[in-house]
Specification:
about 240 residues, Rossmann fold, 9-stranded mixed sheet, two-stranded antiparallel sheet, 7 helices
Length: about 240
């Protein structure tokens, strides 16, 4: 399996440079469960897009501190590419910003979290699981770092998971789109470092809850398996 990773993460701080970039994080995530797969990265936030997206077996879109509502040209270009991918029924997975970008590109809505920041480990409850999600527990623990969320689904989308602070935790369209508001690619070490890095920029109660949340592990491997099964079932359908 040969996947394209569209990197939307705009963080070029010293902190970001001291840690693995999203290209490495997502490759590591996939290799947890499918070590033979290849992941080719494109820094779309720098205007670097694949010349021919159709040559890939599937596409993933990363998170980002950018907002999907930002006026940057690369975001408009990404939205156009998302619609092209969806029209071709090419399998597409999006995490956090990627989840929001797919929703907005297809006619959904994205807005502020009513309760402000969701940060650290959080739990999302499966509502209508897709076939590739049978590996996941009914309540899945994943890392989060978002202040916006999908507030209305695109046409034909079905909600996959929910939580009190994020009613649309992920969605699917047919068997070719799979999204999550969360960050399955983040490691315990990275999210712990990110919390400390941002502690002076976030409300004290947000930071306190985020630190406490890390006492429980994330369901990283099962979620990675769900991503792999998603891409495998779309290829099997041919």
């Amino acid at each position: 399996m040969h996947l394209a990773l569209l990197m939307a993460n705009t963080d070029e701080s010293d902190f970001a440079r001291a840690h693995p970039r999203d290209s490495e994080k997502f490759q590591t995530l996939i290799h947890l469960v499918r070590p033979g797969w290849t992941v080719q990265s494109f820094s779309v936030k720098d205007g670097v897009f694949p010349d021919d997206i159709s040559r890939f077996d599937g596409v993933m879109i990363t998170g980002s501190p950018a907002s999907v509502h930002d006026p940057d040209p690369w975001i408009a270009d990404l939205m156009a590419l998302i619609r092209q991918i969806v029209t071709a029924r090419q399998p597409l997975f999006g995490a956090c910003f990627g989840h929001q970008a797919i929703a907005l590109a297809l006619g959904g809505q994205v807005g502020p979290n009513p309760g402000g920041w969701v940060f650290g480990r959080t739990e999302t409850h499966t509502t209508t699981p897709a076939p590739w999600m049978t590996i996941l527990p009914a309540t899945t623990g994943l890392y989060a770092a978002h202040v916006e969320q999908v507030t209305a689904l695109p046409a034909q989308a079905r909600r996959l998971s929910t939580s009190p602070e994020c009613p649309i935790g992920g969605f699917a369209i047919g068997n070719h789109i799979y999204t999550t508001q969360y960050h399955p690619e983040m490691t315990p070490g990275f999210i712990a470092a990110l919390i400390e890095h941002l502690k002076d920029d976030k409300p004290a109660d947000v930071v306190s809850r985020a630190r406490a949340s890390l006492a429980e592990p994330a369901d990283t491997q099962p979620f990675a398996e769900s991503i792999a099964r998603f891409f495998e079932q779309t290829k099997a359908r041919g």
